[in-house]
Amino acid sequence: MKKFIAELIGTATLVLIGCGTAVLAGAEVGHAGIAAAFGLAIVAMAYGIGPISGCHINPAVSLGAFVSGRMSAGDMIQYWIAQFIGAAIGAGILYMIATGRADYSLAENGLGQNGWGAGYLGEYSLQSALIFEIVATFLFVTVILGATQTRAPTAFAGLAIGLTLWGIHLLGIQVTGVSVNPARSFGPALFTGLGQLWLFFVAPLIGAVLAGLLFRTHLLEETFADDEAALEVKGDI
C-alpha cells in the first residue's frame, strides 16, 4: 500500500507540475522552462518517494524494471494501476485550476497533451513521433536502470534521471510534446481526446523493453564476473 500511494502521488505530481507548467505558464517560460519543470519534478519525487517505491511514476520504467528482472509481474501491475490513477488525478487538478482563467479553452489551450501531425506544435509526422518516442524512452529507461544498479553512485541517481528527462524534453517538445511515459499521456488525454494516445502507449513500451533487455542479458548490467575482472586488473586476485 505504501508503494501504491507513493506511485500515485508521484505520478500526479509529475503531470501537475510538468503539464501544468505548459498550460499555465508556457507562454512565459517557453519550451526550456517546460522541460525544466518535468526534469525538476522527477528530481523532487526521486528523493521524496524514491525510498518507498523507487519512484518509477511511469509504466515504461516499471516495464523496463520487470524485463530486466528487477521487478515481479504482480508488482509491475500494481505500479501501473497507481500510475494511471495518479496521472488522471494530476490532470483533473490541472483542469480545475486552468478553467479558473476566464479566457481558458480546453480546445484551444489544451491540457499539455501529447500529439503529432498537422496543428500540433512542430507538425512532425507519425514516423518522426514514433521514432522519437521509442528512442527517447529507451535512453531514459537505460539511464534509470544504469543509475540505480548496485555499483552506481545511487545518491545522485535522482539528479541524473531528472537531468536526462530535462534534456529529452529540450530535444523533443516540438516533436510530440514528449511522453516517454504512457501515464503522463493518459491523464491529459482523458480530457482532450484519446485519438492519438495509442502511440504514447506503444512507443514508450517498446523503448522500455529494449532497455530492459540490455540489463536482462547483462550487456549493461554489472555482474560477479565484472567484479572479478576489475580485481584482476588491479592485481588483487
How would you sum up this structure, described in words?
The chain is mainly alpha-helical. The chain has a single domain, classed as Glycerol uptake facilitator protein, CATH 1.20.1080. The protein is built from 10 helices and no strands. It is globular. The N and C termini lie far apart (46 Å). The model is unreliable at 233-237 (pLDDT under 50).
Spell out the key features of this protein:
237 residues, mainly alpha, Glycerol uptake facilitator protein, 73% helix, 0% strand, globular
What's the number of structural domains? Answer: 1
Percentage beta strand: under 5%
- CATH superfamily annotation: Glycerol uptake facilitator protein
CATH architecture: Up-down Bundle
> Termini, distance in Å?
46 Å
Overall strand count:
0
**What general outline do the C-alpha atoms trace?**
globular
Largest sheet: none
Structural class by secondary-structure content = mainly alpha
Give the number of helices: 10
- Indicate the mean pLDDT: 93
Transmembrane segments: 37-67, 79-98, 129-148, 155-177, 197-215
Family: Belongs to the MIP/aquaporin (TC 1.A.8) family.
Subcellular location: Cell membrane
Keywords: Cell membrane, Membrane, Transmembrane, Transmembrane helix, Transport
What topology emerges from the helices and strands here?
Elements: H1 2-48, H2 50-53, H3 59-67, H4 73-98, H5 106-109, H6 126-147, H7 157-176, H8 182-192, H9 199-216, H10 224-234
Helix pairs in contact: 1-4, 1-7, 1-8, 3-4, 3-6, 3-9, 4-8, 6-7, 6-9, 8-9
